[in-house]
Design a protein that fits this description.
Largest sheet: 7 strands, mixed
Radius of gyration: 13 Å
Strand content: over 45%
Helix content: under 10%
Length: 127
């Protein structure tokens, strides 16, 4: 399994921006699909965004489409999530996830499709 470590996050006012990063401990990072999920208190973990190993294909939850951008730097073994126009309902613990894929364009939206997870990082949006 790949070890994933999130960084960034924190507290921001509604309408503001924040970025979270996830560093992966693997020499074959470019072979992995990467995803971001989030979980608010009392709610199930939900899909936020995913990016294929080729970077040509991205996938977003409807709730963040147009506000969040997922990207990756395969040379740095890192995936990013840029969050703009943040809303209080974006408050959650954000998790990075990965899975190996032979498909250059595959992106997964379900937690069960991923086999490695980070420890999570808190993002709080105040109203």
């Amino acid at each position: 399994q790949v070890q994933l470590v999130e960084s960034g996050g924190g507290l921001v006012q509604a309408g503001g921006s924040l970025s979270v990063s996830c560093a992966a401990s693997t020499r074959t990072f470019s072979s992995y699909v990467m995803g971001w999920f989030r979980q608010a208190p009392g709610k199930e973990r939900e899909f936020v965004a995913a990016i294929s190993r080729s970077t040509d294909n991205t996938n977003y939850a409807d709730s963040v489409l147009g506000r969040f951008t997922i990207s990756r730097d395969n040379a740095k073994n890192t995936v990013y999530l840029q969050m703009n126009s943040l809303k209080p309902e974006d408050t959650a613990v954000y998790y990075c996830a990965s899975r190996y894929s032979s498909n250059y364009y595959y992106t997964g939206r379900r937690p069960g499709e991923y086999d490695s997870w980070g420890q999570g990082i808190q993002v709080t949006v105040s109203s």
